[in-house]
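pipeline/complex-builder :: batch 7 item 3
reading input block
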Amino acid sequence: MKFGMVGVNGKMGKEIVDYFTSMGDELVLRVDTDLEDISGTPDVIIDFSNRSALEKTVELCTKFSCPLVIGTTALTEDDFTLLRKLSESVPVVQSYNFSEGINILKAILGKFGQYFDNWDCAIVETHHNKKKDAPSGTAIMLKNALGKELPISSLRIGGVFGEHTVVFANDGEVVEITHKALSRRAFSIGARKAALFSLTKKNGFYSFSDVISESLRG
Amino acid sequence: MKFGMVGVNGKMGKEIVDYFTSMGDELVLRVDTDLEDISGTPDVIIDFSNRSALEKTVELCTKFSCPLVIGTTALTEDDFTLLRKLSESVPVVQSYNFSEGINILKAILGKFGQYFDNWDCAIVETHHNKKKDAPSGTAIMLKNALGKELPISSLRIGGVFGEHTVVFANDGEVVEITHKALSRRAFSIGARKAALFSLTKKNGFYSFSDVISESLRG
Amino acid sequence: MKFGMVGVNGKMGKEIVDYFTSMGDELVLRVDTDLEDISGTPDVIIDFSNRSALEKTVELCTKFSCPLVIGTTALTEDDFTLLRKLSESVPVVQSYNFSEGINILKAILGKFGQYFDNWDCAIVETHHNKKKDAPSGTAIMLKNALGKELPISSLRIGGVFGEHTVVFANDGEVVEITHKALSRRAFSIGARKAALFSLTKKNGFYSFSDVISESLRG
Amino acid sequence: MKFGMVGVNGKMGKEIVDYFTSMGDELVLRVDTDLEDISGTPDVIIDFSNRSALEKTVELCTKFSCPLVIGTTALTEDDFTLLRKLSESVPVVQSYNFSEGINILKAILGKFGQYFDNWDCAIVETHHNKKKDAPSGTAIMLKNALGKELPISSLRIGGVFGEHTVVFANDGEVVEITHKALSRRAFSIGARKAALFSLTKKNGFYSFSDVISESLRG
């Protein structure tokens, strides 16, 4: 597919371009601060930059009448209003976390968490020592998927990209479910899956969970 | 509850008596080779011995008109016929593995395995060095729950009671689901859950999966 | 060897008798509260009870002029004075932790900890939910072996017997050193090693580290 | 420091330039196929390319009379002869693996492996599915450091950069020592340590073990 990348010089932008092109896709639109380079008509536009770029992104999707996959974080209510309006004419896939694994984990905990009702439960998460917040947003999301309070241990060491383990234990056995992100590749794979998904839709506002569910029925 | 134990001198028999009585249950019927000691009317009979005891077990369940929880392995077709006949008058819960965790794992893999269709997958299982067979029956069961071929690595070291890990990985992330049995307690907890389940039934032939599913609806 | 067991009815006493006899040793002296049963002359006496039994234990070692292996915890200065006096006539092996693995770990950290000076470091320890104190005494001992402050995460879940992981990480790599006690067997193996060691000595006060070091030179 | 990079366009070359410059070093000499760009006098030259570049590398070190840190693999006897000759006039640090962690692991196993003589032992190593050989060269190196035969399980899944676990187990306990390389950063950190080491030497042929040992005494 031909794709456009907003935030093309950011770390995640570079990674997405790297992965998409390695899969045979063609980069035809590059946008970043002080940069707008259009060399073809995109089938889809990807935006992993920040909300200051949103207006430009929406303008481009409208111009090319193409879907948007957006992983920008910290969106406001106004931003969502803008995106929902865009989704009336083209497909928009929005998520704060495009990792397939984390989304599957969330689904497993939501479905099977109740089986562990009489077990003890804890979460251990490990991230690099540059990460300021603890516990991680993902750990909180997993706790919420389980729907109960539980202790979360946070380790901040070295360059660990991101690991989350949910441990269940009773007197006789232990079940551990672990997710490890190896690199940003975890998110570019999910972003491409979302892009391919968006190509099959006319319009609408979608989450990454919709993408994963669809991939099963497809 | 008042319970009877067939195979009361075996390792698993001792463990079950230990656990059940620690939970307030009363042992009123003890059976083993050359032993039959009845001091009360059992609400349920547990049999974790071997198939040579089966006839006696069925006779006792019939006599007391009480449910049977049976974890005896290597049952023959004839044995199953006998058990099914018994189940017409009392509840019978039969399983080769009363570990809750392993049964939940099996259910997770059956339900979510397809989400990992494009991921690589492998199983690593570790058991004590006395275990002769490899891969373990449980590893094969987990593989079957996934419904596809995959490499299984078997470690036989020291006194490790039993660990199974299913690993999924793609280019960007890894998901690991691990079960560790800490001791025979893993199975006695499940056996007691099955016993409590059987007390709520009139008759019928049940698996341990039925017990787990019921515990959710209950 | 012929051995005596003080605290023969305690959990650790039972385990030690179980393991020693499985290795061909003969139990010839049994002591516990209100129990003293001597059926032979012990080559060594093992005491894993509590300090109230110490006087009796010392009396018996003196009577039979045999070594003592003592794993009793919470000894006072007076108790140590008593033991050191005994060690003038017979060998005494004293330790608060007879796990070989933990003692090897301690030695590894003492020797190689400095190699990780520029790495981040943390300890994660997991024990059963009956354990009251956190962090565990062993975790503190491992921290002291490293000789620096570091965060310790403590999980108290289910029936986990005891696990300790020391994690080192820099920007590019992670080294984890983990010890798992599977059961009390961890300590009875060490106690027997100490007993065999004591048989080769005339007298003296020894630690479990001495036993491990000796086993290498022998 | 000012450094030169041979193989500057290779994956490892880019990573080393990225890391060294992030630490304040200045790249003053860039060499690759059809590329030779010298903008200053290097304090040290790093070569992580392939043996076809070796002659040029040696020529440059001689010209600038500066140390060489070389991580090129598959060197021949002739190549080593060339390097040893160079090391008569400048320091040369040569290794096939510049990971600090792996080298520390090797040292731990060499020193403490004998403590585990009566334990079972196995190695599990996991790498990405592009890796052709199994077991990994590093796994074999760790086995050799232990000096005995043992089973090695090799997993080839997804994009896992490289993990090695040595497991020891007896009837009562388990000790696991694990190394995980998170990315190429594992090797650039080691290469820079070697570069700084080389600046303190007049001449001589050194291994990465020499670098690590020195860093302790320093």
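note: The domain at 100-180 of chain B is CATH 3.30.360.10 (Dihydrodipicolinate Reductase; domain 2).
queue -> next item
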